Amino acid sequence: MKKYSYEARDRATNKVVRSTVQADSESAAAHLLVEQGFVPLNIKEAVDGGMFGKLSGRISTKDKVVFTRQLATLIGAGLPLSQSLHTVLEQTQNKQLQSIIQDITGSVEGGKSLSQAFSKHKNIFDNVFISLVAAGELSGTLDNALQRIATQQEKDADTMSRIRGALTYPLIVLFVIGAVMAFMLFTVVPQVQKLYESLRKPLPVLTQVMVNVANFTEKFWWLILIILVLAVYFAIQYVRTDAGRRMMDALKLNVPFFKGMFSRLYMARFARTGQTLLATGVSMLDMLRITETAVNNSIIGKAIERAADKVKGGKALSDALKSEPVIASLVPQMISIGEQSGKIDEMMGKAAQVYEDELDEEVRTISTAIEPVLMVVLAIVAGGMVGAVLFPIYSLVNGLGAG
User: How many CA atoms lie within 13 A of 231 on its CB side?
Assistant: First the structure.
């Protein structure tokens, strides 16, 4: 099937509508529009925007949240799905998202379900999003499902924003340390070297090491640059492999100072996603299959996969999760209470809230504690380099004075 962009008049409202439709030919597209109550005014085959079009309009989480909430509100108000999509399309400013909504609208008007239309854009709408939409369609609560999706997206985005904020400060300080080292190596140290050479005096060992580093860097900067670029490239390629991803995921769960933060993040994500899926009507096994990917950590994902196999064999979810060391003990405890009361989704929501609150506190603690630690590191590095410059000058002045 081809995609056709069209301009047509809605017979019911007499409004001019612009969107896309999928059909085998232009005449088939016109026939489809007539069947849907439109009077075709202009139909032409849609043209792909190319690479520039893909890069020029990045879709942010905020864009997706606004789109999802608007669609939920319109569907909840009783508007037909196709009309709701057209209305949201008119209110969307992001060009890339407009193109995607047009394609979704065309798929829906071509007879596909909304979840099937979303599944064509898995790079934008993940498995959790698509599964919740599918569950909402089956249960007749699509508007509630979309509202839950928007809430989930907001919570995830807010959590990741706080974590990025906690990690930004160390990166800035490390950059400052690098800048200080570069400044000392390429401006101050050469002056000290010239001074010693003019007096025919040997440089102290530490200062000589700094001189050698500065000379090597100045002479072979291109080689260093090539090595760094290749190292970064191969590191990125390795991290994209299964082995590399497992190594990075394991590192996050074991790295000192940050492992508590990452553990709470994954537990909160698992519990919150599980609660949202179960509350929307997704089955237990499907929920585990989706959250296995949604947690975005292969180590945690494997633990959830093993638990799912045990649940498939007839074991309770709480018992299946208890034997997994990477799953925090509170999660199976809360699920066990939910299994007894018949409210697993509510108890997973409570567990998620606990870990989200703990994560907030952990991020604040790290942000507060890391500042003095980094200041000490900066002082040691900068002080060591300043000492390596000033100490020989001080020794030289004393030697001249004694002479």
Answer: 6
Contact 303, 288 (CB under 8 A): no
The runs of H, that is alpha helices, within 36-141 are 50-56, 61-76, 81-91, 95-109, 114-119, 127-139
- Please tell me the predicted confidence (pLDDT) of residue 52: 42
Whether the per-residue pLDDT at 249 is higher than 70: the answer is yes
Structural domain that includes position 120: 2-152
Rounded to whole angstroms, the Cα distance separating 125 from 369 reads 37
pTM recorded for the entire structure: 0.69
Give the sheet arrangement for strand 16-23, strand by strand: 16-23, 2-10, 38-45
Residue 26 falls inside a structural domain: yes
**Greatest Cα-to-Cα distance within the chain, rounded to the nearest angstrom:** 105
Place of tokens 């979309």: 146
Helices (H), 184-241: 189-199, 205-219, 221-239
Neighbours of 24 (CB within 10 A): 10
Rg (CA), the chain: 30
Helix axes 344-402, 142-183, angle to 10 degrees: 10
How far apart CA 190 and CA 182 sit, in angstroms, is 12
User: For residue 270, which amino acid is it?
Assistant: F
In a domain, 273, yes or no: no
Which residues on adjacent β-strands are paired with residue 39? 9
Instruction: Give residue-wise pLDDT tens across range 63-87.
Output: 888 999 999 999 988 888 988 998 9
